[in-house]
Amino acid sequence: MKTITISRQYGSGGRQVAAMLSEKLGIPYYDSNLLLIAGEKYGINPGLLKEYDERKNSSFLYGIAMLADGYTNQDRIMLPYKLYQAQMDAMKRLVEEGPCIFVGRCADQILKDECDLLRVFIYASSMEERISRIMKVDQVSQREAPARISQRDRERKDYYYFHTGQEWGKKENYDLCLNTSTLGYEGCVDIIYQMIKSAQH
Q1: Residue 70: pLDDT above 50?
Q2: Rounded to the nearest 5 degrees, what angle is found at the Cα of 178, between the Cα atoms of 130 and 152?
Q3: Maximum CA pair distance of the chain?
Q4: When you count CB atoms within 10 A of the terminal residue's CB, does the N or C end of the chain come out lower?
Q5: Which of 56, 102, 104 is nearest to 80 (CA)?
Q6: Which fold has domain 3-39+86-199?
Q7: What contacts 35, CB < 8 A, 6 or more positions away?
Q8: What's the CA gap between 56 and 53, in Å, rounded?
Q9: Surface-to-core class of residue 117, CB atoms within 10 Å of its CB (0-12 exposed, 13-18 middle, 19+ buried)
């Protein structure tokens, strides 16, 4: 299995699992940096890329920013499709270059026809742990954290369905579903690592 996709709940530590697995396997992982690679194709402002990242619809402020940067209404309508296509092209190019890990961004569906693919979903059953993580990583207050978690998960679900027609988080779409609340980050990494090594023999 040379390509690994990691979908994750917000606050579950999926990005951390990807980073640890990347180090253990000695292969690169692509998260928000994939947007920059994709954006080079269209010369798109990195701030706009971040605003769109894993969100189905553009916000009011996003629309204003685009118009201020000289984008037309037509550009604003087409940009999400262009960005998704650019991400898709970037993923497929990177897969051809060698083993890698992709975090989110519909990679499990974009690459579903690739050989040697392992699709993982990371979740956390403990809301307290999710809240604690985003407070630390994203500097979100404890009061704001539950609403932020609900919003980001909803955005990822809508984005995923909009581009793939599939249900984000549905276990049938993944080869492994791992709970960081019970397994911990290292436990999740070890399970994925052992599965990959077993498949090589």
Answers
A1: yes
A2: 40
A3: 56
A4: C
A5: 56
A6: Rossmann fold (3.40.50)
A7: 46, 49, 50, 53, 83, 87
A8: 8
A9: middle
Q: Are 44 and 150 in contact (CB under 8 A)?
A: no
Q: Single out the residue of 196, 153, 201 nearest to residue 7, CA to CA.
A: 153
Domain ranges of the chain: 3-39+86-199
Across the chain, mean pLDDT equals 85
8 A C-beta contact, residue 110 and residue 94: no
Nearest CA among 62, 69, 118 for reference residue 95? 118
Give the span between the Cα atoms of 23 and 125, in whole angstroms: 26
Residues 6+ apart with CB under 8 A from 161: 167, 168
What tokens does 185 get? 């980050």
Of 7-11, 19-23, 41-45, least confident by mean pLDDT is: 41-45
Q: Looking at residue 49, what is its pLDDT? A: 64
Which tokens sit at 100? Answer: 């890698």
